[in-house]
Amino acid sequence: FLLSTMTLAVVQSFSVSLLKAMHGVSFEAATMTLTAYMLCGAFGMFMGGFVAARLPRHSDRVVAVCMTAAAFCLALCATGIFGATGTMVVLAATGLAVGIGGPGRARMDQEATPKGATGRVYGMVYSGLDVGFAISPLIFGVFMDRGWYAATLAGAALVLLLSVGAALGVGRRTSKA
C-alpha cells in the first residue's frame, strides 16, 4: 500500500503540472486527464472485483500483472513519445490497470492475515496509505522543482515496480502457509 500509494500521490499531486510542462496542454485538458485516471481507476476496481473472485488463488499474480502494466504505462508517459493526447490516454489507462489490481491486493491482505490479527494487520497495512501520501510529494516534489518532469513519472513507475516485488513476496509467503 505504501508503494502503490506513492505512485497515486504523484499522479494526483503532479499530473496536471506534468502535462502542462511536458506537453503544453491546457489546464482544463490536464485536469480532465486526472479525472479520467480516477474514473478509469474506479471502473478498474469494479472489474477487478470480478477478476479477484474468478482467480482467488492467484491474487499476487493478478496484482503483479496489473501493477507492471501500470508501471509500463507511466514509463511510456515519461518518454513523451505519444505527444499530448496519447500521453493523456495512456495516463488514464494507468488508472484502469491500478484499479483492476486493487481487489486482488485486498484479497492478498485477507489471505496473509493470521487468525485474530485482522485489526492489527488492517492498521499496519492501511497506515501505508497515509505514509505513502505523506512522503511521495516530499521526494517527487524535489524532482518537480528541478524541472525533472520525465524523471518524476519514471520514478513513479519504478516505485510501482517495487510494489510488484512486494506483492509477489507476500504471495509466496501466503502460499507456503
- What proportion strand? under 5%
Work out the radius of gyration.
Answer: 16 Å
Give the termini distance in whole angstroms.
22 Å
Give the topology string: H per helix, E per strand: HHHHHH
H/I helix tally: 6
- Shape summary: globular
Average residue pLDDT: 90
Regions with little confidence, pLDDT below 50 for 5+ residues: none
Q: Structural class of the secondary elements?
A: mainly alpha
The count of strands amounts to 0
The main pleated sheet reads as: none
The helix fraction, in percent, is over 70%
Walk me through this protein's architecture:
By secondary structure, the protein is mainly α. Helices cover 89% and strands 0% of the residues. The chain has 6 helices and no strands. The longest helix is centred in the middle third of the chain and has 30 residues, at 83-112. The two termini are 22 Å apart. 41% of the residues are buried.
